[in-house]
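Hey, can you fold this?
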Amino acid sequence: METVYLETTIASYLVARPSSAPLVAAKQAITREWWELRRPLFACFVSEAVLQEAAQGDIAQAARRLAALRGIPKLQATVEAEHLAEAFLEAALPERAAIDAAHLSIATVCGAKYLLTWNCAHLANAQILDRLEPIALRRGFALPRVCTPEELMGESNDVH
């Protein structure tokens, strides 16, 4: 079974109140569809970084995010992952993206096949990933495929 690291934005879009903004509403719908139809086909994981981030903000929304993530196995942030995150920050990510570096490094060191996210600023960003990939490779790791739920929907006949 292929492995997926669920970054915090997945839980956020999954449980958020319906948005009146068309793009956000579409992302919410795609996330819900992926969660219901595709998630059971993968071994999904989170990390303590995901749970800490999900617990922030509006108390009711945080409770919904954490409830959605309950029972999903947690990957551990190793010293190796911490060092890789630091290298990612030095090379291509701004300091404010430290949590994003942590997500990517944990997923990388733990060997996740995919990192699922709606964060296109720092994670699902081809130019940034191009700069981070050689860093991971020099340390003996391959980056996971970073993608959105829309990209991990599978073939159309798999879903319907």
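Oh, and this one too while you're at it.
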Amino acid sequence: GLVLVISAWNYPIYTALPLVAYAIAAGNAVILKPSEMAGYSSNCLLKLFNKYRIPVRLQLLRILSIIEGKVEVAKAITKLPFDLICFTGSTTTGRLVAMEAAKNLTPCIL
């Protein structure tokens, strides 16, 4: 399936990477959306991913993608049909994510 992982601003790497690893280990492709409030961490993850995805570049592109952007990007992404959405963050934002996911009957881990 396809899993969307939206990480928190206060633990951007520690909340995202284990979820990404578990989702890939379960045979899913993952789209990671780091928090826009942790811009340096987000950019660092993107640079490291681009640097170390060595010999199997095309295959890794199908398994993991990292999308940076502000709130508008997150809103647009959550409207897409995923098989699972994992979100770590505030309850207010979690409700918005769950409402968008419900439109596609996408299960959520909040």
